[in-house]
Each structure stands twice: as C-alpha cells, then as structure tokens.
Amino acid sequence: MPESPEVQSLVEFLGRRAAGRRIADVDILEFRTVKTRQSPPSTLSGREITAARRFGKHVALDVGEDAALVVSLGRHGWMRWRDATDDTPAADASATDAPPALAELRLDGGETVEMTDAGTWVSLGLFVVDDPIAVPAIAKLGPDPADPAFSRADLVAALGGRRKQVKAILQEQESLAGIGNAYSDEILHAARISPVAHAAALDDDAVDRLHRATVETVRGAIDARRGIPIDELKAAKVAAMRVHGRGGEPCPVCGDTVRDFSFASTTAQYCPTCQTGGVVL
Fold first, then answer.
1. Which of 60, 67, 146, 264 gives the lowest tally of CB atoms within 10 Å of its CB?
2. What positions does the domain Formamidopyrimidine-DNA glycosylase catalytic occupy (predicted)?
3. pTM for this prediction
4. What tens digit of pLDDT does each residue of 234-262 get?
C-alpha cells in the first residue's frame, strides 16, 4: 500500500518532470478508474500541468488554474514515468511482472505518465475536479504528521481517548493522513507500544513517545526516499523496515524475534521485548 513518504517522493518527481508540460492526450484503459463521469480525464487534453501536490496518499496534478487530476492510489495503485525514447508498450500483466497501466497521460514532449494497479480488483481512482478538496476522501483527511505544524495536540485529538487500537487509529485517514500498515508497525515499535494497545490506555509518557515516533518515522522516511527513482521506491521502503515484514528475524533494537500477529482484516509485526513486556500475542 502506498504511504505518504513514497507518495511524497512521487509527487516531487512529477513536480520536476511534468510541471510546465501540456497534456497531449489521455488514454483510459480501465473505465472503472474514472470517478467523475461528468468530468472525464479526457477534458484535460491540451492543458498545462502546473504543479503536483500530495494529500495524504493521494496525488493531485494541478492543470491550469481551475482544474486538478486527483489520483487516488488506493491499496495497489502507483504511477510510472516513460521517457519519449521508451517505445515499450504499456505493461501487460499477462506478459510481465510489472503492474498493468490502467490510464495514461501523454505529454507534449512524448513522455507518458502511466497510472497502474497491481491488485486483483481496481483500487485506483481518477477524479477531475476544480479543487482537490472536492474529492470526498481528501475532504475528510485528518492532520498530516509530515506537516511541520503537526502537534502533540493533533495526535491527542486523533486518539480521542477511544477504546480503539492505536494501530487502527494510525491507519485511519480521517484521524491521521498518510500512514498505512507498514509505517504504523514502525511507529509503534519506535514508540515501544503494543499493536493491540487501546488509545484510552495510553498515559502521558506513552503519548509523548507516540507523537515523537510518528513525527520522526514519517519525516525521516520522506527524507530518506527523496530523490530515489520512483520505480525503486517500493524496494527502498521494504529495505528500510525494522519490524514490518520482518517476522522471524531479530529485532534491530534488542535482538528478540520479531513476531507476526493477525487481527481483524490486517496483520502486524512487533517485538515482544520492546512492545509487549515479553508477552507473545
């Protein structure tokens, strides 16, 4: 699942490469991706991309002064860049391991921005709107820990003293924007908090640790991903994980074995010594 550090790097890449370019043509290969049928992406042909912005896990390409193409990456979506000299056809899932392109923006210099989806069901969504805030999922986003203004009070408001697992709240986009399953595991490990701990059970010291770990994990990952080619971001993310996806491996902090834990519809990786007082969930 794309999360804010990788999406931020993607947006910065698109800002450098696509801003100032005109959209020569739009090709929609999977019509289920189009969420604004009255304003399809084809209406953007001939217009100039002026900027790229991130909203949580969403990419917004500003087109002129009064329109934006919002790409909701969903669970398995991503974007690819093809140079004008690359005459390889759009990825065909039946012939390659690369995810298929479900939509393409062809730019005036011959380059192509491909929007892909690697899932068995279509999670990619495309919206053409006057302002990204018109996309319901963006309108409901909570504060973003990457924002310099993000405060401990923002985190406390997100937690709300609820009898709900902190891991679920970290991934709840209406509470905190941009964090998914991987970085929630990393944050909880850094904060030394159990993945099944409820927000209501956290004392002031735990909230302090959680705020610090959230900010440092998200902003540190953004800095670490900056400048990495967008087709290498997923691999860089996986390589940087300390506990997520590391079940059976030693914890890099204490040497205990990282454990897997499944609950509801998700999984978590955690260190018993660092996070649960030695208790195996």
1. 264
2. 2-122
3. 0.93
4. 999 999 999 999 999 999 999 999 999 99
